[in-house]
Specification:
- The chain is an alpha/beta fold.
- The chain is built from 19 helices and 25 strands.
- The strands form 4 sheets. An 8-stranded antiparallel beta sheet has the order 3-2-4-1-10-9-11-15. The protein has a 7-stranded antiparallel beta sheet with strand order 5-6-7-8-12-13-14. The chain has a 5-stranded parallel beta sheet with strand order 17-16-18-19-20, sandwiched between helices.
- α10 packs parallel to α11 and α13 packs antiparallel against α19.
- The longest helix is centred in the C-terminal third of the chain and has 22 residues.
- The structure holds fructose -6-phosphate.
- The site of fructose -6-phosphate (F6R) has 15 residues, from α9 and α16.
């Protein structure tokens, strides 16, 4: 989490830094700050809360200088206060940091023994203090920062600026991503290339353990062993247009509405005109795969969980699915002929990346499904499959989820084909169904207004249950996750059949129970569970198609009608009511839809 940016430029740095921080605010919004060096003098401004507070502060207390560093914070160590906000400064050293310095207590103890005092609760202050301590002992800024870096354990991306040095910035990466941007007589660093996109499209990525000594006219990158390293400069294709809401009230609403278009883009990228599934590079030969391990976090994990049903039912391939934070420390054995698949919108999620690294050399192949082709997870995979969702700004993932599902469904079809589990006719039927999906999603979007009334009722609840069976079970989880994260209403998901094994004790007339039940082969079973809820006065919201609603909506509190869709594709379509219900409920409650409390879009700490 946290976003960092640095500039050695030819123009005033403050507005450039603030603009870049806007593009990084998805990483955290607990506080923001910048530091500049102006005619040799280091100074900083910091403000609690969203970036707009820092912008306001800079109007009253401007900061001059063409060299600067900036930070937007998701608090790890220490509350979101001005004093804990970055940049942290010790004497003539200012530092911005993304990550966690795990041995900061040990370093603090050493510094305290040397008589150094602390003014913050953060791990980052230790980095600035240790570097300043080395400078006071007679080292140059470069020597001091290098010596400090050698002591740091944990995950970090860092940028240093020094009093008295208008043309020097030091950047380092271990665990957290950092991009170096090349301008004309200017240099930049940023947590990702998107932050730098209005400034330059020429980017190189620091690798694990690298540090860079940067001036306006030179970059020297050293690897983990201190040897000069050559990191290629790539010209990145990037949408440099300002990311805006396009007339919608929230990014989330815009991103929900974009789904027909981006799913169509996925189909165009992975399907030939003749209906063949085309993967980049050498693709994957599933006839050599005996099992799949899928690992991810949050909504991306739920995309994997959904794909498990597809892989097992359509391609007859066993799939193990796990959340990355558990997988990485469980260290499971990886049998021969395992394909490991990592799904991540950002491509930078720390736990998912660590799980990928665990599988490196153990799994036969590492594939990833990502939205950021230049991300660490993409770069460290044997095969990276882009989901083509475009930039997702809303913290709650929406279009990335349905694009992940679409890419995974195509992989399932490829697997089923390679393994001889799908006839030509069945494959053609699946592909034809897929091609109708964007239109069907458009129809579902038209129900958005009707869902407002249900959401209004939902907004008064304090606990909500989601039920689903079969491939709707992961979707029930997605519905509960979306509702929790943006409306702050407590929500849980259960497999419909599990209800009577305990959770039904929660049901009374105050608990809305959202039942996701397309009229599929399992419909009658789910409806029986729904009746058990209604018999206990639970308020059922039934989400189904016209036939399902006609057959089973007697006595329900509310019903939401989805268009009909091929049975295999229901998880993609039913993501829409999950998203829209959460969205309208959050709007009814007046919560911060795009930047919900305590969250950040890219989780680069474990
Ligand atoms: C929920 C959400 C998160 C992310 C999770 C993984 O709406 O967005 O649960 O899905 O943090 O992030 P990525 O996909 O970037 O690895």
């Amino acid at each position: 989490m946290c976003g960092i940016v640095g500039v050695l430029g030819n123009h005033e740095a403050a507005p450039i830094l603030v603009e870049a921080l806007k593009r990084l605010e998805y990483r955290g919004y607990d506080s923001a700050g910048i530091a500049t060096v102006n005619n040799g003098t280091l100074a900083r401004r910091r403000a609690v809360g969203k970036l707009v507070n820092l912008s306001d502060l800079l109007v009253h207390e401007p900061l001059a200088g063409k060299s600067g560093i900036g930070h937007t914070r998701w608090a790890t160590h220490g509350a979101p206060t001005v004093s804990n906000a970055h940049p942290h400064q010790a004497g003539g050293v200012a530092v911005v940091h993304n990550g966690i310095i795990e041995n900061f207590r040990e370093l603090r103890a050493e510094l305290a023994e040397a008589g150094v005092t602390f003014v913050t609760e953060t791990d980052t202050e230790t980095v600035a203090l240790l570097t300043q301590h080395h400078i006071e002992a007679g080292l140059t800024p470069v020597e001091a920062a290098t010596k400090t870096l050698a002591r740091l354990e944990g995950a970090f991306a860092l940028a240093f600026l020094f009093d008295g040095h208008d043309d020097l910035m030091i950047a380092a990466r271990k665990g957290s991503p950092l991009a170096v941007g090349y301008g004309e007589g200017e240099m930049f660093v940023g947590s990702d290339a998107i932050a730098l996109s209005p400034l330059t499209d020429r980017i190189s990525y620091l690798e694990e353990g690298d540090h860079a000594i940067i001036t306006r006219s030179s970059v020297a990158i050293y690897d983990v062993n201190g040897a000069l390293a050559n990191r290629p400069v790539k010209t990145i294709q990037m949408d440099t247009t300002r990311i805006d809401k396009g007339g919608y009230k929230h990014f989330m609403a815009k991103e929900i509405a974009e789904q027909p278009g981006v799913i169509n883009t996925v189909l165009q990228n992975y399907l030939s005109d003749t209906g063949e599934i085309t993967l980049p590079g050498d693709g994957i030969d599933f006839s050599d795969v005996d099992r799949i391990t899928m690992v991810a976090c949050g909504t991306a994990y739920l995309a994997c969980f959904t794909a498990k049903y597809w892989f097992e039912q359509i391609a007859r391939l066993p799939v193990e699915v796990d959340v990355a934070s558990e997988f990485r420390y469980r260290e499971p054995p990886i049998p021969a002929k395992t394909l490991a698949v990592f799904v991540s919108q950002s491509g930078e999620t720390a736990d998912t990346l660590a799980a990928l690294r665990y599988c490196d050399g153990k799994a036969d192949m590492i594939a990833s499904v990502v939205n950021v082709p230049e991300s660490s997870i993409a770069r460290e995979s044997d095969l990276a499959l882009s989901i083509h969702a475009g930039v997702e700004v809303g913290v709650a993932s929406t279009k990335a989820f349905t694009c992940q599902l679409t890419v995974l469904f195509l992989l399932v079809l490829k697997a089923a084909r390679d393994r001889g589990k799908l006839t030509d006719a069945d494959l053609e039927k699946h592909i034809a169904d897929l091609r109708t999906l964007p239109g069907i999603i458009n129809t579902a979007l038209a129900q958005s207004g009707k869902m407002q009334a249900t959401a209004q009722k939902l907004s008064h609840a304090s606990d909500v249950l989601f039920l689903g069976r079969g491939q709707m079970y992961p979707l029930a989880h997605e519905g509960a996750l979306k509702l929790k994260e943006i409306s702050y209403i407590h929500a849980e998901a259960y497999a419909s059949g599990e209800l009577k094994h305990g959770p039904i004790a929660l049901v009374d007339e105050s608990v809305p129970v959202i039942v996701m039940a397309p009229r599929d082969a399992l419909f009658d079973k789910t409806v029986s569970n729904m009746q058990e809820v209604m018999a206990r006065k639970g308020k059922v919201i039934l989400i189904s198609d016209a036939q399902g609603i006609a057959e089973a909506s007697d006595g329900v509190w509310s019903s939401i009608e989805m268009p009909s869709v091929a049975e295999a594709l229901t998880p993609i379509l039913y993501a829409l009511p999950a998203q829209l219900l959460a969205y309208h409920t959050a709007v009814a409650k007046g919560t911060d839809v795009d930047q919900p409390r305590n969250l950040a879009k890219s989780v680069t700490v474990e």
